[in-house]
Design a protein that fits this description.
Length: 187
Amino acid sequence: MPVYQPIMVVEMGDDTTQYCGQLLGDLEYVEIGKSEGAKLKTGGRRLTDGDYQNGWFMEPTVFTDVDPKMRIAQEEIFGPVVAVIRCENFEDALRIANNVEYGLSSSIYTRDVNRAFAAMRDLYAGITYINAPTIGAEVHLPFGGVKSTGNGHREGGIGAIDFYTEWKSVYVDYSDRLQRAQIDRPE
């Protein structure tokens, strides 16, 4: 069930009376996080002053003391909202990361090459970054999520070409003779 109801905007421009569904949903997640007991460390408000007065902008938002079962830890929030979750060790972090319904992208920061390769193998996500943020804008790579994220296809890179291609096999015989099928027996 979505946090907010999608709305259609016909015109674009500086008219600040129009709604921005994504921002409203992100702001609602801030309230959900607070009501579930997570601590809002910074951000969580719409930016409206100065350069931000004619747009739909939100402060980068950080929650701490997040339980892995909270909605802000379980649902996809596409705004600048991060939920910091404590874990006991590497294996616990993998368990927490994989115990969600979605799997768009994942990231790990480490100097341990063995843990990096374990994360690549064990994190169930459409893309895994090592020592880089999960920006999801790798146009040169096939990109898409797993589980309840995305549509099951990959977009970007060769995956996009394959997705939009209908393969057709063609065989041409230039011998000018009638060819027998492999199952035909000579007379």
